[in-house]
Give the backbone structure.
Amino acid sequence: MGSAKTEMQDYREFIDEILVSEEELQKRIAELGQEISRDYEGETLHLICILRGGVLFLTDLMRHISVPNTIDFMAVSSYGTNRQTSGQVRISLDLKDDILDRHVLLVEDIVDSGYTIASVLSLLETRHPKTLKVCTLLDKPERRETEVPIHYRGFTIPNKFVFGYGLDMDEYYRNLPFIATVDLERYRPNA
Ligand code: IMP
Ligand code: MG
């Protein structure tokens, strides 16, 4: 069936450790939702999820947002090898709706080099939203190559490759309810 794997390696064979458990994630996401709801009180919030990694975070986060809100999606791909982001980012799916004069909050899985968020921010600025802020579940500051503003941050993590809760290993394992680190020596991409 196409290029899909017929067998997926069990993550327990290559997991290093659970970095953020399901309970910790859900607790922190509820706090973020409450903080965002306070900050945007009396306003309508437009949430923009960056596909595909941000999708689990968005759907859990929005359940804790009490101000009126709408959602939209955008996909970007970075040129470069698997786990190394290059400086160039391409929009592969643009927003459906206009953001002119709206309060926009970008919802991202992780800020790593910062190139993705930096490119998306500079593109969206040209469309003149009323406000434009960034909410990321994870922040890997040691890897930063370009300065980006982060207004809401779930967790600061060390410089390790992580998977689960939206983040993939070669597109798989996004559905795991926790964030884990990988032992690359035990990972078999073409199992
Ligand atoms: P940046 O442009 O380098 O900040 O990279 C952001 C994107 O790289 C994220 O949206 C992720 O898709 C991907 N990414 C960065 N670090 C990891 C990781 O540890 N695991 C999985 N994906 C990652
Ligand atoms: Mg990815």
Q: What stands out?
A: The mean pLDDT is 93. The beta strands are 15-20, 45-51, 69-78, 89-93, 103-111, 131-139, 152-156, 162-163, 179-182.
